[in-house]
Amino acid sequence: MLCNMKRFLLSLPVSLFFLVTSATVIAQQGSNPIIYADVPDMSIIRQGNTYYMSSTTMHMNPGLPIMKSNDLVNWQLVNYAYDTLSTIDAFKLTNGKSTYGHGSWASSLRYHNGTYYVSTFANPPGKTYIYSTKDIEKGPWKAQSFSPALHDHSLFFEEDGRVYMVYGNGRIMITELESDLSGIKPGTSRVLIENASAPAGNNIGLPAEGSQLFKINNKYYLFNITWPKGGMRTVVIHRADSLTGPYEGRLALQDKGVAQGGLINTPEGNWFAYLFRDFGAVGRIPYLVPVTWENDWPILGVNGKVTDSLPLPVSTGYQPGIVCSDEFDRSPRANTLPLPWQWNHNPDNNNWSLTKRSGYLRLTTSRIDTSLVMVRNMLTQRTFGPECAAVTALDTRHMKEGDCAGLTLFQKIYGWVGVKAGAKGNHRLVMVNTANGIPEEVASIPIHQPVVYLKAAADFRNRADKGYFYYSLDGNTWTAIGTPLPMAYTIPHFMGYRLGLFNYATQTTGGYADFDYYRLDNTISGNTGN
């Protein structure tokens, strides 16, 4: 009977669901956030009963992730639009340059005439990118790019076959693209809305941006985010009867800072706004907000509020769809990584391997580095809330004097636990903390065995935003090391914390570190994750 009641409730229109469930308790129902991890700037489409979502991963590669869901709640990575976005120095961490806080920004995912399209933009190198494929889950992707970079654009296919991008910051622009999407059609750029922030008032800190344009029942709806000074992220919607306007605008949602996104409907005809929320060190996390319609306007939320519960299925968790453990076991020729892994900037593919030693990830040094933020071949995954931890086993036998290898919680303010290699195998287990703005070795312990076990844990409960580090000599008994890391979401990196495996040289190149496995846990206690 409970299952029948659940099916009945989930089939109700959104408005009736909240009316019925206000006096009804059900065992399972969806809840916000739908993903407690850094998945910002979402763009979602539905094809039949399947939803696809693109998101921002900035300087990580491969990039422009594609996720798939059958229920809007449980998502799994199925593809990336590109392996690397650009080969300029900033993307390769060469010549002292990096692209932290930049790389691929807000994307736009669309389906038109049997082809999937996803577009993004990047500064540097100041370009707009469009990727297309017939098979969104397997590819291949065709890549095109042109200048300039159109900020926070929305790709839009009109029914007459013409293609547009809507973009801008404060002043929202529209431009028509060439029919082959190779660039902007000359003379077509014009102002669409002079001041898109106006519905939120005159005291604006962040002008309207994050454009997403939709055509529903022959009307055009443009979503933007703006941020009044002293206030919070705010959703503004403009509506028009024709693509080029005129547009009238409304303040659509101002609650919990949940904003930036667009509209999606279910096969049953229920509507939601997909948005995200800044949530401290874990990053920008996705929310779904119920939508009803009134006089052809989408009404976001219930009584103007973002609900904790949703008329959708319960989440089954993020592993292995968005994050995953990895034993690094591959066939002898399979030098491939599961999709949740991303490299920090472009990888140096000559200096990492899953095949040179069966069952291990090998990271080999190829240059001298002095700072973790400039190290190539750091392999990363998202952290996730409300708490999470990762464990690895590190074989140090082929590290050279001065090499540093280990496990990190990575953002501008980072910490790591690992091994610093000394002369004649005199290695030290260390914890490095950058809480004071510079890397400080706050703990150091001599080790006398070739394999050590490392653990990093993140506590995001109630915005604690603390990182903790542990070591073990047998993989079972864990000991805390160093000092807690005060994790903070910083604009220079513009990304939630990542867990990462790394190895870099400070004196001599050519040494290598072998990682036996990477195992995730959803608790932070020192005696778990073995």
Automatic annotation (TrEMBL):
Family of this protein: Belongs to the glycosyl hydrolase 43 family.
Annotated protein name in UniProt: Beta-xylosidase
List of catalytic residues: D41, E209
Record flagged with keyword Signal: yes
Taxonomic superkingdom: Bacteria
PANTHER family on file: BETA-XYLOSIDASE (PTHR42812), BETA-XYLOSIDASE-RELATED (PTHR42812:SF12)
Species, as recorded: Filimonas lacunae
InterPro entries linked to this entry: ConA-like_dom_sf, GH43_C2, Glyco_hydro_43, Glyco_hydro_beta-prop_sf, Glycosyl_Hydrlase_43
One BP term from GO: carbohydrate metabolic process
Signal peptide: 1-27
Keywords attached to this entry: Glycosidase, Hydrolase, Signal
Domain Beta-xylosidase C-terminal Concanavalin A-like: 326-519
Entry keyword annotation includes Lyase: no
Site description Important for catalytic activity, responsible for pKa modulation of the active site Glu and correct orientation of both the proton donor and substrate, residues in chain: D152
A Pfam family: Glyco_hydro_43
MF annotations from Gene Ontology: hydrolase activity, hydrolyzing O-glycosyl compounds
